[in-house]
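DM from R.C. (forwarded with permission)

"hey, sorry to bug you on a friday — could you get me a structure for this? deadline for the figure draft is monday and I only need the backbone to look sensible"
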Amino acid sequence: MIEINLTIVIQVLQFLILIFILNRLLFKPISQVMTERKAKISAWEEKTQKLKESARMQLETYENQLREERAQTQERQEQLTKELKKKEEENLQTVSEEAAGLVASAQQALVEETERLRLELRHQAVELSQILAEKVLGRKVS
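My reply, with the result:
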């Protein structure tokens, strides 16, 4: 059986003193270090979350700007295409007008040349008729 005597009381007192000393020198500092560590980890996690949120917001801003730039680029491209088509139509119209002018002037020149040749042929016909009449008649015809 268990005997209760002074040694048990001394051992219990020694145990309590040891617990008190360990608590002061070991458990409280370790507990304090762990609390500080948890606080640092929480701060890091919070900072990480803020950085993630900031990165997400910057990415959204970048994507929005990229979308806007693409839309503006497409709009500019469409505008340039319209301008090019308009200039092309103007150039075609100018070329068509010039070609029509050239055709008209060529036709006019052809008509003038035809008329000139007709007159020349008439004069030649008259001269040939006179020459032929002189040869047939054997005398000069006036």
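R.C.: lifesaver. The mean pLDDT is 92.
me: no worries. Residues 6-137 form the longest helix (132 residues).
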